[in-house]
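Support request from a user on the community tier.

User writes: "When I paste my structure tokens into the form, the page sometimes reloads and wipes my input. The last time it worked, I copied everything first. Here is what I submitted, just in case something in the input itself triggers the reload:"
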């Protein structure tokens, strides 16, 4: 469990720097330069991600059940995962209504993914992993929205054609991941 927690600390900690230590982050970027900062940030993020995946896998051996998930939890998780994929994709497709409404659809998508997985899983390792991502996404989403408000940020109006692209790509990516990648990578087949 220690590896999982360490990986979460590194990965989510790095992705929280702007929220909790924005001035320090800006000083480091100015001191190192944008390219080297991004390289170090990326390498540490990858290391944290690998550590949390490795830790999550190792935590399976001493899994502690906290509750039995409801039968409908897996169905809700699948639905929220599809919505999460759409939101993540819409973060990269310009002028979607999702971006106009949410401002930060990827962060909202991570939160929905985590919430769905909490509903479908009841072990301690799941609560630690998905609970951490849920709390992180709520805190970061609120911080980013507040920063947008303070800066007077206005997102361009969404276009239905752009929404359609985000929806189609998101649904296809969710299906490919669920049907072909989730089992080999995570060890759980969502649609048994």
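"...and here is what came back when it finally went through:"
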């Amino acid at each position: 469990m220690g590896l999982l927690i360490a990986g979460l600390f590194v990965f989510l900690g790095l992705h929280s720097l702007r929220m909790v230590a924005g001035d320090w982050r800006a000083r480091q970027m100015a001191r190192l330069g944008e390219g080297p900062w991004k390289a170090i940030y990326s390498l540490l993020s990858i290391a944290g991600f690998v550590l949390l995946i490795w830790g999550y896998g190792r935590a399976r051996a001493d899994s502690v059940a906290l509750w039995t998930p409801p039968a409908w939890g897996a169905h809700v998780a699948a639905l929220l995962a599809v919505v999460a994929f759409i939101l993540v994709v819409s973060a990269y497709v310009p002028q979607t209504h999702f971006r106009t409404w949410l401002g930060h659809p990827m962060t909202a998508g991570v939160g929905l993914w985590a919430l769905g997985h909490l509903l479908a899983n009841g072990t301690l390792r799941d609560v630690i992993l998905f609970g951490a991502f849920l709390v992180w996404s709520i805190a970061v989403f609120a911080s980013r929205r507040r920063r947008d408000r303070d800066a007077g940020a206005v997102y361009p109006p969404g276009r239905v054609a752009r929404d359609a692209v985000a929806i189609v790509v998101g649904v296809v990516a969710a299906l490919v991941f669920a049907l072909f990648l989730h089992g080999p990578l995570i060890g759980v087949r969502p649609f048994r």
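Agent notes: The reload is a front-end session timeout and is unrelated to the input. The CA atoms of residues 86 and 167 lie 5 Å apart. Residues 1-62 form one domain. Escalated to web team.
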